[in-house]
Amino acid sequence: MTTQLTAQPRPEDDERYDNVDIPSTTFVLDNGLTVIVHENHDAPLVSLNLIYQVGSKDEPSGKTGFAHLFEHLMFEGSENAPGSFLENLLKAGASNLNAYTGQDRTTYHETVPVGSLDYALFMEADRMGHFYSTINQDSLDQQRRVVLNEKLQTESGPYGKLHELKLKGCFPASHPYAHTVIGEVKDLQEATLEDVQNWFRTYYSPSNAVLALSGAIDEQTAREKVTAWFGHIPSGPPLSRPAVWVPDIPENRRDVYQAKVPNGSVMLSWNIPPYGDKATILLSIAADLLASGIASLLVKHLVYEEKIASHVTANINYAALVSQFTITATAVPGVALSQIEQSVHDILQRFLAHGIDDDTLELVKITVLSSFANAHKTSAPIAGLLSNSHVLLGDADRYRQIIAIIKPADVDSVQQAAQHWLARACHTLHIVPFTSATAAVQPAGSITPPAILSPAPFQLPAVQHGRLDNGLPLVLIARHSHPTVNIELVLPRVKENTQSEAALLFDLLNQAGAGERDAFEFSSAVRRLSASINVSRQDQTTTLSLSCRPSQLSALLPLFLDRFQHSTLALSDFERQRGVMRDTLTGLKHNVSGMVSRLLPAVMYPQGHPYRKPSVIEGTKASLERVTFENVQQYQSRAIQPVGGTILIVGDTTLEQIVPVLNASIGAIPWSQGTERASDRQLSPARKSQVFVFDVPGAEQSAIAASTIIPGLEWPHEASFTMLNDVLANGFTSRINLNLRENKNWTYGVHGQLLNDVGSRIHSVQTSVQADRTAAAMQEIFDEYRALLSDRPVTADELQEVKNAALLRLQSSIEGLGGLNSMLSHLVRYQLPDDHWQRHQERISSTTVDDVNTLAKELFHPETLTWLIAGDWTLIQASVQALALGDIHVIAGNGDDLYETHVA
User: Fold this and answer.
1) Which of the 8 DSSP states describes residue 397?
2) Separation in Å, CA 752 to CA 728, 774, 856
3) I need a labelling partner for 611 at 20 to 30 A (CA). Which of 11, 100, 521, 716 fits?
4) SS (H, E, C) 145-191
5) Within 13 Å, how many C-alpha atoms sit on residue 515's CB side?
6) Of 690, 656, 803, 781, nearest in space to 728 by CA
7) Which residues lie below 8 Å from residue 897, measured CB to CB, with a gap of 6+?
8) What are phi and psi of 489, to 5 degrees?
9) At CA 489, angle to CA 485 and CA 492, rounded to 5?
10) Are 726 and 90 in contact, with CB atoms under 8 Å apart?
């Protein structure tokens, strides 16, 4: 059976709306496997999205968490592909490689170069058809420990058990959605080998699966390859599935959840129909009307007018049996949650009674459809859209029915859907701050894998240069496959006079008025053009960016110039945003990994260094109190000026088309050349090891960073160091990750962090582990460094694996506009030549074992590592001290004193 879906002009297409029409072909193998193909040759890549129609809703009592546990087991290797599934596919150059389990389905996905497609199909087919015989007690025990550690890591966060409480409040105990996806500890601990073998036989079969392929592949090739690899697998048993069930929530169903947060929140949840139901699609419009953007009803009233909330959201969790509509509002200090709750209900009741005007509804529809279109421009999200449309809606092209409901939606239909479903009883959850510092610690024939073919050499599309009439340089990469153009005005970053003024300015600019428009009018004007305008900052630069359809560029540029030249800040917004940042800092002290990130620059860079700035929030509580509105206004006048910089353009345009348009706008502004950026001074690595500790009482996990100073990215060894980092600590197959996650099961992951800084920068091995394994994990990291420099240097096989993966992954960098934008931006921000990425590819290819091992000995010295740990010091003190890795410094207070004497 084959269904051909082609892109054709549609009479209802309207220039106001972004059009989404993705041609695809669907066919079904004799064993029941459904295959969907979308062809697009923008890049030599293919994305695979394989859904098994099994999730937590299918778990009987006593077997909660089985679907998610089995997701982990499926990465353990199969009969003809032994070893780690992740490791094998990463060697094939896979990116976007992961899996997730939800209430309704389990999804596996990856993107591979075309030369690795046969290998990826073989791997997916082998674990579908030849996994049963490899399920053993050791792999079950190992992955059970990983899942329990994941559960601990998730639930140890401030909102860790919030979702479970919400589910129990919204669903009766017998409802398939009444338990969490990750399951109960008792059920996971009692899972037997026979249990998981039966689970596989029941659900992991071709007849219960949907495979989507999107990218550089045609339908005939897909049919041949999928049939060759999957066609021999027997069909599965017939299955019964839970029916749609939208339960009523009892009147006055209320719960209170204590969380380590600075301010409380109110969460209101309604049960609504499943995904695809017309009422639910109309309610998605209502959610945006209520709380999307600063001009939306709840945000405007609660945040900007009443000033009783710092943040408001309205969203829908779509699912197959029942969806949920949730409004969440976070209170500002001193405001009672009962007041927030009453205000939300009052505004909601006014909306249900009086609806909204046509103009506002039209603006929301434009935004919704634009967001949908922008989210589905590359192969991976397209594959996900097609497979999910088939599973949840019955056919790959049924997403078009969603669009067909949104486009003609009018005020009455949206209001009627909201009146019918949001006037019902809801579950009310008050999240209240909790300040206590105590917590408890808790079979077929052999199949030969196909060859992985070498990729075609990576080639960045041509980089073109121009200059506007005012002398402003312009750099462009053309990509005509999608009707979108992205423009960035990249300016040199201006030094702040007062800590926190830059952080506040850039947060305020993205929600400020400009020109003759106030903040609400400016936001609406941009959204009406299906566009976006944003301001951001980086270590070395400030960026103003826009994204729109080429046909809307002329209309958008006046708004862009207003943002650049005439942004208007409000004192009330300054006070509100300062409060939001203050609350973020207060809540951060309970987040172990967040505190490691925040404090790492302070323990690595000396006083006065420009990189010694706190991350997450750039400033301290004291600096937030000191900074004035006038400070921020003065910084705005210096930071956003026509001085220096470059315009970056990526998308559906040419130099001949866009230069005249830009000359009529930004090119008419007098522009002066900037001064050359001063070189940041080189730092010497530490001469002795030190251990810094941030105490988080009650923390069930510890975050660890083992760090050293290395040269900036302008050095000639970047490619070699990238390979070295990948072998040691970065990625699933790295030595330290395989040790701590796969062998020890102490962590959910290890990362080799490497910042894009010039001059000198931090290399850091970071992970979070269960608290009782903190010292042991530090010792393992230390030993891995020592082994790298002595008896276990990087081997030829290890180097070849990471080289192949890096070269293959380069292909995925150029698939979408976002990737092209990032690569071009990298060239401009760091003043690199146009052929940098080609030369980087060549350096990767030519890197030798001697190169990386020599580099390791030059840069890594385990006895001089700087350690930063965030965790419960009373629990880990004795064991960390016993390591004797270096002098121990317990950081006082919230760590702000480390930054207070430094002015950015």
Assistant:
1) G
2) 8, 18, 14
3) 716
4) HHHHHHHHHHHCCCCCCHHHHHHHHHCCCCCCCCCCCCCCHHHHHHC
5) 14
6) 781
7) none
8) -100, 105
9) 155
10) no
**Is 548 found in the same domain as 696?**
no
Alpha carbons 53 and 658: distance in angstroms, whole number = 48
Whether residue 794 contacts residue 800, with contact meaning beta carbons closer than 8 Å, is answered with no
Q: How many CB atoms lie within 10 A of CB 237?
A: 10
Both 587 and 694 in one domain: the answer is no
User: Is residue 3's pLDDT more than 50?
Assistant: no
pTM metric for this prediction: 0.84
For residue 484, the cross-strand partners are none
Query: How are beta strands 209-215 and 464-467 bridged, if at all?
Result: unpaired
pLDDT at 678: 54
- Express each pLDDT in 599-608 by its tens digit: 999 999 998 8
d(CA 106, CA 204): 10
What are the beta bridge partners of residue 547? 486, 532
- Tell me, yes or no, whether 514 lies in a domain: yes
Please check whether residues 520 and 629 belong to one and the same domain. yes
Do 608 and 713 belong to one domain?
A: no
- Tokens 């090119």, residue? 667
How large is the angle between the packed helices 411-422 and 358-374, nearest 10 degrees?
80
d(CA 765, CA 632) in angstroms, rounded, equals: 36
CATH of the domain at 537: 3.30.830.10
Q: What is the pLDDT, as a whole number, of residue 443?
A: 37
Measured between alpha carbons, how far is 322 from 391 in angstroms, rounded to an integer?
15
Q: Which of 702, 724, 722, 725 is nearest to 778 (CA)?
A: 702
H/E/C letters for each residue in 541-603? EEEEEEEECHHHHHHHHHHHHHHHHCEECCHHHHHHHHHHHHHHHHHHCCCHHHHHHHHHHHH
Structural domain containing residue 411: 254-374+397-433
Residue (of 752, 698, 706, 707) closest to 730 by Cα position: 752
Host H or E run for residue 260:
none
DSSP helix/strand/coil, 467: strand
**Cα 627 → chain centroid:** 32
| pLDDT tens per residue across span 248-262 | 999 989 999 988 888
Residue with the bigger pLDDT between 371 and 325: it is 325
Structure tokens at 53: 């129609």
| Total of domains in the chain | 4
Place of tokens 């596989």: 200
Give domain status of residue 389, yes or no: no
Cβ neighbours for 182, distance < 8 A, ≥ 6 positions apart: 65, 68, 147, 150, 151, 154
| Amino acid code (one letter) for 631 | N
Establish if 215 belongs to a structural domain.
Answer: yes
Separation CA 549–CA 563 (nearest Å): 19
**The pair of three-digit structure tokens given for residue 465, joined into one six-digit string:** 């240069």
Asked if residue 242 is part of any domain, the answer here is no
Full strand arrangement of the beta sheet holding 309-317: 254-259, 427-433, 265-272, 323-331, 309-317
106 shares its domain with 138: yes
- Opening angle at CA 100, ends 801 and 311, nearest 5: 115
Domain boundary among 161, 196, 230: 230
The residue with tokens 């009962």 is 338
Q: How confident is the model at residue 681 (pLDDT cuts 50, 70, 90)?
A: low
Tell whether 221 and 270 lie within a shared domain. Answer: no
pLDDT at 680: 58
Residue 805 DSSP one-character state = H
782: Cβ contacts below 8 Å, ≥ 6 apart: 706, 862, 865, 883, 885
CB 585 within 8 A of CB 621: yes
Judge if 174 and 207 occupy the same domain.
Answer: yes
pLDDT tens by residue, 24-81: 999 999 999 999 999 999 889 999 999 999 999 999 999 999 999 999 999 988 999 8
Tell me the longest C-alpha to C-alpha distance in the chain: 75
More confident position, 189 or 437: 189
Q: Please report, as a single letter, which amino acid is at residue 431.
A: I
Nearest to 510 by CA among 530, 537, 489, 490: 537
Per the CB < 8 A criterion, the answer to whether 364 and 288 are in contact is yes
The C-alpha atoms of residue 276 and residue 14 are separated, in whole angstroms, by 22
